[in-house]
Amino acid sequence: MRGKKILVIIALALLLACIVALRLRRDKPIGPNLSETSRLIGGPAFEVQVEMPAFNSGRAPWEIPGVILGYDRGPRFDQASPGAQVGKIAPDHIELSADGGWDLLIETDGEGRLAQETHVAFPVKLGGRPLKFSCRPADPTVGYLHTTARKGSDELEGSFQLEVATCKNATSGKTAAWPYQPLRVRGNFAGLKRKDEGGRTKFRSFHGTSIVRDSTIRHDQMSPFLKNRLAEELSLSS
Q: Is residue 118 situated within a structural domain?
């Protein structure tokens, strides 16, 4: 009898530890200070995270320990991802994309609520199968888009969060029976220049760090780090 009580106590302690770990994972910031990152690379910086719960999300059982320990938080992309691009940017509109099936559009209406045009497409593995989904917010929409203008410039920085509930298979176009519960998508950004529909800003990566291609940044405005990386690129392409 005593041995059973000890096992029950150990099981409860492990359950409590898992709950605490998941809570800390949920509240943990998704990345470093992006304002500093933007200044370092001399251009836009952003990070987008799709948060998949450890349980009831279609994850393979062997992936769950990594989720609890914080090693696997779900699909994500940033300015260093292959093919990363910035589209239309306004105080009420953000467009970000990357290769592999990433496409994010967040728009708010005149009252600051997420508009129905908001959507996010992303790649994900479910049960070991690589899939791509295009998802829309819950109805009514849950989330926000917060933007602030950098003093003396046309650049925006801020954060966003939304819950997506309805997803379509990006390949077949059919509505999926997934996710089993709304997924939270959140992100931060800095140094995004206001622009209309005309064109997208592309990035080029150097060992995990990105610089802006086809930007209007003058050489004397670049950080020493960025100048060195640009010099390396020019020497390689010559």
A: yes
Asked if 142 and 76 touch (Cβ cutoff 8 Å), the reply is no
- State the pairing for strand pair 143-149/155-169: antiparallel
pLDDT in tens, 13-54: 455 544 444 444 444 444 458 888 898 888 899 999 998 876
Q: Which of 73-77, 162-166, 168-172 has the lowest mean pLDDT?
A: 73-77
Structural domain tally of the chain? Answer: 1
- Summarised one tens digit per residue, pLDDT across range 137-153 is 988 899 999 999 988 88
For residue 10, tell me if it sits in a domain.
no
Q: Does residue 8 lie in a domain region?
A: no
**Residue 15 falls inside a structural domain:** no
Which backbone phi and psi does 132 adopt, to 5 degrees? -130, 135
- Look up the pTM and report it: 0.70
Nearest 5°: the CA angle 21, 26, 32 is: 110
